[in-house]
Structure formats: structure tokens, C-alpha cells
Amino acid sequence: MSSQTQGVKRLTVPDIRNRKGKTPLVCLTCYSAPTARIMDPHCDVLLVGDSVGMVVHGLPNTIGVTLDMMILHGQAVMRGATQALVVVDMPFGSYEAGPEQAFENAVRILKETGAQAVKLESGPTVADTIRYLVQRGIPVMGHVGLRPQAINVDGGFKAKGRNDAEREKVILEAVSTDEAGAFAIVVEGVAADLAEEITRRVSAPTIGIGASNACDGQILVSDDMLGLFDWTPKFVRHYAELRTEIGDAVASYAKDVRDRSFPAQEETYFAK
Ligand code: KIV
To answer: Atom 5 (ligand 1): residue with closest C-alpha?
Structure first.
């Protein structure tokens, strides 16, 4: 079959699945076209995470994020990315009612964004939904351990697996997600030995966030690792301090404007 997008060669869901136990998967969250263009050459997966609600829209948590927001940001990322696999998060309330609701909303995401897969926060109660989606041609990434959409049940963003009962629960979440057919599983906020056990017990590659190097890959919220906030979780290494750089740049601009040293006359639109 001929294709109108021949120049674009994206990583595929099987490519990501086949990386189990091999070179670690490089994944970042991404929410806009220009950042997608910058991150794309370095990443295997760009996740349009529902963290967009917190880091871009200033919401207190991810509960208020809507399907329309996810689709809008998914479209933007797809315009900027050409080689990474793009996955879009299903927001709270868009899949929990059951497989048919999840199918309808996942189809909207794939059709309206062009992304290749969806992610949902998973576990035994969601396993049937994952199976239903996968059997109908929708690749699913799972998400176990600290599940931000469970904030109201958990009473905050809490690391998981601190005692035996919790450990068993997280292992069950991961194994049921794997058996349901997820092609990769995000493992968030668990200790290294638990991440290691999950990674050993599931056939899908695990992607850790605050879950040690034991996983098959890593993901971070990009705005956190770029240093855009004055507070980030302890495990996040800052690879840049953009908050300071942006603040300094805006202060320099403000000074130029107030000193009337900007724009220099010859730099206007009308310069020859
Ligand atoms: O929404 C998000 O950014 C995520 C990552 C934390 C994995 O789900």
C-alpha cells in the first residue's frame, strides 16, 4: 500500500516491545510541537502525559485533565516528532467505566492525533479493558505503582511497596497488566528491589520513574528534568536550569525595553 508520509520512519510498538532486556528505552514526557522537535532525535518514546495538566496548565493534580486537552497536546507533539513512538495518556474518567467507554475514547485519541498508542493507569480492575483494547488494535502502555490519578484514594502522591501487602498489590497490578497485553509498563515510585522483581516477572519492557535503574527504560517529566520548577521530586536529576535561564533572559529583555535600547532602529521589520 502506498503512503503519503514516506519520509517519516517512526519507531513502532513492536520495536519498543522488542527492547525488553536490551538497550534501555529513553522516554520523556512532551506536550508541544517545538519541544517534540528538540526531543525527538534523542528519544525512543515521547509520552503526552496527563501531567500536562500540572506542568503546563497549573492544575493541582491530573484529575481535571480532559480528553480534549490530551488530544490537543497529542496533535501538537505529532507535528513536531518524526521518529519516536508517540503515546498519549488517557485522562481520569475516560476509561474507568468499562471497555466500551475506553475503546471509544482511545479511538478518538488515535484518530485525531495520529499517535500510535495510549497509556492508562492499570491494575487488576483495568486488565479486562486493556485486553479489550489490544484485541481491537489499540496498543496500550500500562502504568503501575504510584498512580497519580488515584490521588484522592491514596491521599497524595505516595511511593508504593513499603510493606509486603503493598508489594504484592503492585506486583499483581504489573502482572495483570502484562497478561492483558500491554506492550510496555510504566513503573512509578517503587523501591529498586520491587522494580527489579516486576521487571523480571513481566514480558513487557518496564519504564521506570523514581523506580531505579532496574527497569528496561526510564521516563521523566521533561519540565522537571529541565529545571523549570523550584520544587521537583527528590529522584529527579536536573539536566538544565531553565527556570533561572528564562528568568535571566526576561530580566535582560525588560532592561532593554526600559532603557529604550530595544529594538535598535536598524533591527525593525523595515530595515533594508
Ligand atoms: O503523565 C505523566 O507524565 C506520566 C509519567 C509520570 C509517566 O504518566
So the answer is: 49
Ligand 1 centroid from CA 50, angstroms: 6
Q: Cell triple for residue 82?
A: 518524526
User: How many angstroms is it from 49 CA to the middle of ligand 1?
Assistant: 5
DSSP 139: -
Q: Is the CB of 140 under 6 A from ligand 1?
A: no
CA separation for the pair 16, 19 (Å, rounded): 5
User: Could you tell me the residue range of the domain that residue 271 belongs to?
Assistant: 242-272
**Residue at 94 is within a domain:** yes
Residue 231 shares a structural domain with residue 250: no
What's the gap in Å between 51 CA and the centre of ligand 1? 6
- The answer to whether position 2 is within a domain reads no
Nearest-CA residue for ligand 1 atom 2 is 49
SS3 186: strand
φ and ψ at 46, to 5 degrees?
Answer: -110, 120
Q: For position 73, which CATH number holds?
A: 3.20.20.60
| Residues 166 and 264 grouped into a single domain | no
pLDDT (average), residues 132-143: 98
The answer on 223 and 270 residing in a single domain is: no
Plot region of 189 (φ>0 → left; ψ -120 to 50 → alpha; else → beta):
left
Tell me the per-residue pLDDT of 152-195, one tens digit each, with 9 for 90 and over: 988 888 888 889 999 999 999 999 999 999 999 999 999 999 99
Are 118 and 250 contained in the same domain? no
**Residue 219 and residue 260 in one domain:** no
Please give the Cα distance from 191 to 211 (Å, whole number).
6
Residue nearest to atom 4 of ligand 1 (CA): 49
To test ligand 1's pocket by mutation, which of 89, 141, 229 has the most ligand atoms within 8 angstroms of CB?
89
* Number of compact structural domains in the chain: 2
pTM of the model: 0.95
